[in-house]
Design a protein that fits this description.
about 110 residues; alpha+beta; five-stranded antiparallel sheet; about 25% strand; transport; Longin-like_dom_sf; endoplasmic reticulum
């Protein structure tokens, strides 16, 4: 069975909103998770600018030997990304579902400021 190692939610300016570590090995401390989130935000922004394809929205999948990183960027610019085992199926639909849950929760919070 495929495993999800961690889930990140980043706001449009690169700040870490949410982080959940689901893996049992290689847990990161708070500073490392902040570094990963800001690094991914920067790489995503640079890839949008350097892409030869017009309308490119950035990196959606990063494949490595030991993990895959799937990313979904919403229209307001919030990024949702998950680090999982290589070859894990249906991560795009999972990220869209997490986005739906997030927006449902945030929009019902009367104290949330956009």
């Amino acid at each position: 069975m495929a495993a999800i190692y961690s889930l990140y939610i980043i706001n449009k300016s690169g700040g870490l909103i949410f982080y959940k570590d689901c893996g049992t090995k290689g847990r990161m401390d708070t500073n490392d998770s902040l570094r990963v989130a800001s690094l991914w935000h920067s790489m995503h922004a640079i890839s949008q600018q350097l892409s030869p394809v017009n309308g490119c929205t950035g990196i959606e999948l990063l494949e490595a030997d030991t993990f895959d990183l799937h990313c979904f960027q919403s229209l307001p610019g919030t990024k949702f990304f998950v680090v999982c085992e290589p070859g894990t199926p249906h991560m795009e639909s999972l990220l869209r579902y997490i986005y739906e849950l997030y927006t449902d929760y945030v929009l019902k919070n009367p104290f949330y400021e956009i």
